[in-house]
Amino acid sequence: MTKLFKVTARAAGSSARTGLLATAHGTVETPAFMPVASQGTVKGLTHDVLEGMGARIILVNSYHLSLRPGADAIQRLGGVHSFISWQKPILSDSGGFQIYSLSPLVKVGEDGVRFSSHLDGTKIFLTPEDVVDIQRKIGTDVMMCLDTFPSYPATMETMKEAVGLTTRWASRAKRHFDTQESSQHLWGISQGGVFWDQREKCISDLLEMDFDGYAFGGLGLGEPKSQLFEVLEKGGALLPEDKPRYLMGVGYVEDILEAVDRGVDLFDCVLPTRNARNGSLFTSRGRLSIKNVKYAEDRRPLDEACSCYTCRNFSRAYLRHLFERGEIASAVLNTIHNLHYYLDIFSQIRQAISLNSFDLLKRKIIK
Questions:
Q1: What is the tens place of the pLDDT at every residue in 190-228?
Q2: Where do the CATH 3.20.20.105 domains begin and end in the chain?
C-alpha cells in the first residue's frame, strides 16, 4: 500500500519540512498552497492558467456544492474531477467555516447543524455522517470532518463546548467513513482557539481516532500572532511525523512562513484572489494598491522581479485603467499576478528547505 504522506527533507534548526502527499489523482509536493475554488472554479481563472502557474491541488467547498448543483448531481456527472475538468488533487472543506460565517442562520446541536440556505431559505439539517456522505459523492481526494468553533475572543466555557462537540462529531465521522472502502482521505480538525489545554485535548482525542491528516482550525480570527504561532509549535510537537498538517484559512505570507517553520504542510486562503479583485496586489517589495492615482502614468510592471503573464506584458498604468473602468480583465490579470506570487513563494520554500536555507529565505521575504 502506498504511503499517504512521506517527509522528504527537513531544515536544520527548524521544523520546516518538504513532503509528498499521495492521492488518487496524483502526488502533491509540500509545503503547498491550495487556491480556493469554492464553487469548483478559482474566480477569474481557467484551469489551464492555474496549472501553468504551478497549482497542483485546489480546495472546493462541499457546503456550496451540495446546495448548487447538489452532491447527487455531481456524482451522476462522474464526480467533481470530471464535472469541473480538473484531474489533479482536490480537497473539500466540510462546511464548518460556514457554521461560523453564517451564524445568524445556523443552530448547532449535538446531532448536527440546522440552518436556512443562504440562497433561498430552505431548511437544512446535516449530521457529521451526512457531511462525509456529501464529500464521498462529490469525490474529492481529501475530505474534512464537520467541526464548529466560536468567534474570537471566546470564553473558556464556550470554547470547551465547541471542542467537545467537534471531537464527538469527528468520532462519528470517522466511524461512518470506515464503513466503506475508499481511496479518499479523511482528515480531522483540531479546535480550541488559543486555549492550549483545550487545543491539546482536542489533538489528543483526534490522534486516538487515527485520521489520515490533521488540521488546525479556528485560527487567524484576530488572536495575537504570538499565540497563533505558539499553538502551531506546541500542536506540531504532538502530531505524528508521518501525517500531513494543514493550517486552515491563514494566508498572509509572513504568517505562512512562520507556520512552515513550525512544521505545517498545507495552506489555503482567499486572500490572494479576493485582494486581487479589490486591486490590492502582493509584490516582492510589499503590498501595492493599483487604484492609487500615482500609478496613472507608471510604465513599470507591477513587480519587476515577477515573471507572471501580467508582469511580463502590462504596465501599472494599464492595470490601474482596467481597475478604474471596472473591466473583467482587471480581476483576471490581478488574480494571475497574486496567485503566481503565492505559488512561486511556495516553490521557493520547498527549494530552500531541500537546500537547507529556509531560515535565510524566510528572513529575506519578511524583510
A1: 999 999 999 999 999 999 999 999 999 999 999 999 999
A2: 5-269
**CA-CA-CA-CA torsion sign (210, 191, 349, 237):** negative
Q: Let me know: does 15 contact 259? Beta carbons within 8 Å.
A: no
First to last CA, the chain: 44
Three-state SS annotation for the chain = CCCCEEEEEECCCCCCEEEEEEECCEEEEECEEECECCCCCCCCCCHHHHHHCCCCCEEEEHHHHHHCCCHHHHHHCCCHHHHHCCCCCEEEECCHHHHHHCHHHEEECCCCEEEECCCCCCEEEECHHHHHHHHHHHCCCEEECCCCCCCCCCCHHHHHHHHHHHHHHHHHHHHHHCCCCCCCEEEEEECCCCCHHHHHHHHHHHHHHCCCEEEECCCCCCCCHHHHHHHHHHHHHHCCCCCCEEECCCCCHHHHHHHHHCCCCEEECCHHHHHHHCCEEEECCEEEECCCHHHCCCCCCCCCCCCCHHHHHCCHHHHHHHHHHCCHHHHHHHHHHHHHHHHHHHHHHHHHHHCCCHHHHHHHHHC
Note the pLDDT tens digit of each residue in 41-81: 999 999 999 999 999 999 999 999 999 999 999 999 999 99
Q: Residue 64's pLDDT is what?
A: 92
Residue for grid cell 448548487: 68
Q: Is 268 a catalytic residue?
A: yes
pLDDT tens-place string over residues 115-172: 887 778 888 899 999 999 999 999 999 999 999 999 999 999 999 999 999 999 999 9
Q: Which amino acid would we find at residue 149?
A: F
Catalytic, 344? Answer: no
Domain at 5-269, CATH class: alpha beta
Those residues with Cβ within 8 angstroms of residue 339's Cβ, 6 or more apart along the chain or in another chain: 35, 42, 45, 50, 53, 55, 272, 273, 276
Catalytic residue selected from 48, 93, 261, 303: 93
Candidates 147, 268, 298, 359; catalytic one: 268
